[in-house]
Design a protein that fits this description.
Blueprint (H helix, E strand, L loop, with lengths): L9 H10 L1 H6 L1 H11 L10 H6 L2 H11 L10 H10 L10 H17 L8
C-alpha cells in the first residue's frame, strides 16, 4: 500500500507567511530585510514566488527565517520563547526594553521558585 505524504514546499511556506497580513504587522522590519534579499533576484513586476525560486537555497532559508511568524499568546511554546528572549535580552524594536526583559525574567524566576512551573520545561 502506498502512503501519500503531503509536505509543504519551501516556496508554499514562504508564500503563506508572506501573504499573512498579521504576520507582516508583527515584524515589518524583518519583511524589509527579506525584500532586500528578494530584490536581488527579480524586479517589482514579478510576483514574489518568481524571485524566491531564483534565489539560492541559503537566501531562501534566510528569507523564510526572517518572516517566520512570531509566537502569539496561547500558542504552544509562547511562554518558553518569551522567557528565552527576555533572558537573552533580545529587543523587539522599541517595544521591549531592558527593564521589560528583566521583569519577564523576574516573573518566571518567581514562578519557578514557588513551584507553579518547572524550570525543566524551559
Amino acid at each position: 500500500m502506498k502512503r501519500q505524504i503531503n509536505a509543504k514546499s519551501l516556496v508554499d511556506q514562504f508564500l503563506e507567511w508572506h501573504d499573512d497580513e498579521t504576520n507582516y504587522h508583527q515584524h515589518p522590519d524583518d519583511f524589509d530585510k527579506m525584500y532586500e534579499i528578494l530584490n536581488k533576484y527579480g524586479n517589482s513586476d514579478d510576483t514574489v514566488d518568481i524571485p524566491f525560486n531564483r534565489a539560492t537555497p541559503e537566501d531562501q532559508r534566510r528569507m523564510c527565517e526572517l518572516i517566520r511568524p512570531k509566537r502569539r499568546p496561547g500558542d504552544d511554546g509562547y511562554a518558553r520563547d518569551l522567557y528565552m528572549r527576555a533572558r537573552n535580552d533580545e529587543r523587539d524594536g522599541d517595544f521591549y526594553s531592558k527593564e521589560y526583559n528583566e521583569g519577564v525574567v523576574d516573573a518566571f524566576q518567581a514562578l519557578f521558585k514557588e513551584g507553579f512551573i518547572e524550570r525543566s520545561d524551559f
